[in-house]
Every structure is written in C-alpha cells, then in structure tokens.
Amino acid sequence: MKTLHLLRHAKSSWDKPGQPDRERGLNKRGQRDAPRMGEALSHILPPMSVALSPARRAQLTLEGLCRGWPALADCRHYTEEDLYTFDGDDLLDWVRRQDDRHLALFIIGHNPALTDLVNTLVAGDGLANLPTAGYVRIECPGASWAHLGERPARLARRLFPKELPGD
What we know:
Elements: E1 2-8, H1 28-41, E2 50-52, H2 56-68, E3 77-79, H3 88-96, E4 104-109, H4 113-121, E5 135-140, E6 154-159
Parallel strand pairs: 1-4, 2-3, 2-4
Antiparallel strand pairs: 1-5, 5-6
Helix pairs in contact: 1-2, 3-4
C-alpha cells in the first residue's frame, strides 16, 4: 500500500495587485494556520520528507508547518517545479513517476489540482474542496505509484484549520 499526504498551501495574500502568482505570500490567516496545522499534524504523523511547489506561498506554508512541528524541520524537503500546477492530471502524472521505494509522499501544492486528485483517486464520497492549509491522507492500494488510480483509494484522514481548537 502507498500513502499520499496532501496539504494545500495556507491562505495566500492578494494585497499586491499585479504581483506574479508565484511570488504571493501568506496573509495573516495563512501565517496563523500553517503553524497550527504543523502542531496538529505532529500528533498524528511521524516527521517526513515534503515535496512542495516552488510558489512562495507553498514555501512559507512549509516554514510555518515546521514552526509548529519542529521535528519536521529536520527532514529533507525538496521543491519540485512540476508541483506548481493547478491541474489534477498533471499532479497524478507527477505522483506516478515517483520511486516505489517511497511508501508515502507528502505534497504541499495548489487547488484545484489537489481536490481533483483526491476525487480522481477516492471511491465514493469525494471532497468538495480542500481548503487552504487543509490536509488529507489517502491510502492507495498496490505497491507501485505507476499504477495509482487503477483501483479505488480510501480517504483515511482529513484535518482542516477550522476544526482545530481556538478557531
């Protein structure tokens, strides 16, 4: 079995009209939610490597996660150009190219690609929208990433910032 951990970047800022999309940072809510999600995830996941989009808001989300989950900062993280996508099929193609030695992948990316990927993989009830800083764990049958999607996966866990204490 393979496991996908998907996290949408935290809420981004739109306060600079004309700023290139890749350069947008996080707004106050995003700056608040990323460490809160990191702290919450530290109770349900072991620290692991994270693959993330090169967009500044994704990079800042990882920094925030690490502030809330210090052990995550000690793991190897890598930026993948192909994760700067808004297309679920592109994201699925990227996952299918990953080395099968990895039993799990943790991705920080963008919508609608993440929501579309979840709905492509999961049987039955899908996900209307993965909110900003929202996390899902998908358990995928099979031993190879290359065959991801050939059999239905299971949405095993979800955690959204609005579900955290103090929101």
